[in-house]
Amino acid sequence: MMNIWNFIEQKLKEEKSIFLMIVIETHGSSPGKQGFSMVVSSDRDLHGSIGGGSVEFKLVEECKRMLSAGEQQIFIKRQVHKGNVTDGSGMICSGEQTVAFIPLSQSDIQNIASITSCLSKNKSGIFELTENSYNFRLSDEIPETQYQCTITNESNWSYSETIGYKNIIYIIGAGHVGFAASKLFYQLGFKVVLYDNRPNLTMLTDNPYAHEKQVIDYKKTHEYISEGDNAYVIIMTNNHTHDKEVLSLLLRKNIKYLGMMGSEEKVAVIKKQMRNDGFIDDDFSHVHAPIGISINSETPEEIVVSIAAEIIRIKNSK
Question: What domains appear along the chain, each with residue ranges and CATH number?
Fold first, then answer.
């Protein structure tokens, strides 16, 4: 599926004018989440979404009007979803969202091409937007949060977004469930990193879904795991001793999600052993073990669906 930046580049090459809409800030139950984006082209072609429904329809129509009138001003528009109020959208979901409108034309092709080139090379960069202009620059540093926004008023605001930002799923254990997890999280758009301590393991070496795969010493697992809001870890080694070893090393790292596969009995035993090693109950407060939501999973594929559901819930929560 074509990403929104490639769509923009294609339309600009076709000498079409564009309005790019980006949700730069949200509060409460807004239909569009921060970072949602949508393009309206002068040939009335559309790509992306800022949340759908009547709000999206109204803003699309506004973009069409501005394109017809040749308007070329960056601006923001606040939408309050609380019925008949100032800046009201007409919706009643009790949330708010602020949408930035960015006009683009043939003069922007080079800037947009730098973004599509960045993505094609699996690199990252920072898209910066203010009330006056936008800018894109390559950056090797991936911040802990993908979006940053400051709004003083409609004439003084800024927004930045990491383009090429990847949520990383670290799968510790390359067995059957690890293989199924690699496939599903690959499909969900995560960067998949797969580790195991067994050399010449076919399910590791022949896994086509892992972006990175490596044989490691589980005693050094913590050295391979990055920290931040984009880091997710699932522990599913082939041995409960290794599970305990890896969990002990990662328990106090700053990662978004830490889960360990196993029965309630196995988890209880491992936690008891770790308490004897000096860990306290608070250390386990953020650990998801047994891993996943309860859906009576049986097969590896069903197990990873339950894990993915839990991770998606965590990822999309504020």
Answer: 4-163 (no CATH), 168-315 (3.40.50.720)
